[in-house]
């Protein structure tokens, strides 16, 4: 929360000035303006902290250091009332038992890599085969212990009055089979236009593949408030990447026109999710990557979601070339959220901004190779409003 106490502000300014002189920080380290609380201890004995960011309108987001997970995010309805619109659990045990990546930072490689394997400069690297869609093993979301399961180092930051959280993690050479030590920084910023801005930054000392994203589960009716099949989706994508029965892209960039994957104009998930279609059958619904129309790396609107009963709107803007729409096909009501409600089948959706799945093995896809001296730098914004 923001503090207006003059003595505290003065002390913090002096602390921030000395910190900037020492480390060359570009963000003012006013850590006392961001609330934090203990969130238990991980199974490995590491303390986990929850941070709460707020903005000038009263919007709030909670983030825990375990997996850098967004655990709560409030958004306004058409009457100006804020409610939580993401799924989450009330304690660390819930997150450690979770296998669906609720709210988590995902890496080193978000989405799937065929056969858990890729080649760099003639050398083959073997990764964990931790997923078996269609009974075909593949590598998913960074492996057995991906970035969703590690405790990140956190530093609250404030820049131009905007509250943020800086998370860092050093992913060592060979971790989960990936080459190179990857030095990662992720910033969450809660902006006064009711948007959550996520910036990803990484460098490596060896060539490696990198594809970072966030795996928040959204329901614009409110957390645990029924299904999302009546939400209206628009995706600014005229093509998608069809998959085989193992949910690995075939390499084709297929036009969406005339298929259930055409969200170039708004329609609900229920309008076509039940169509007889091989791709929908493979995914159990929507679990596919869309090829965004914007491919030049600039910030552009990728998706818009509207929920008619509350009037809530979510816009997703990104510098990434792709976005994964997941329609909650494997939610089954067995998980209970922090409000005590069960997370039912198709009770939430994900919109994960990304490079395409299996890019390391698909030479016609935009490259995800990061080399020493290069910088991985990408931003995604989730903006909320109502109508």
Q: Count all strands and give the number.
A: 27
Q: SSE string, helix = H, strand = E?
A: HEEEEEHEEEEEEEEEEEEEEEHEEEEEEE
Q: Major sheet, described briefly?
A: 9 strands, antiparallel
* Mean pLDDT over all positions: 92
Helix tally equals 3
Distance between the termini: 28 Å
Structural class, please?
Answer: mainly beta
**Shape assignment:** globular
Gyration radius, in Å: 20 Å
Please mark out the parts with pLDDT under 50 across 5 or more consecutive residues, or reply none.
Answer: 1-32
Tell me what portion of residues adopts beta-strand conformation: 35-45%
The largest sheet has its strands arranged as 11-12-13-14-27-23-22-17-20
Percent of residues in helices comes to under 10%
Please tell me about this protein's structure.
The protein is mainly β. It has three helices and 27 strands. Strands 11-12-13-14-27-23-22-17-20 form a nine-stranded antiparallel beta sheet, with no helix packed on it. A five-stranded antiparallel beta sheet has the order 1-2-3-4-5, with no helix packed on it. β13 and β14 form a beta hairpin. The chain is globular.
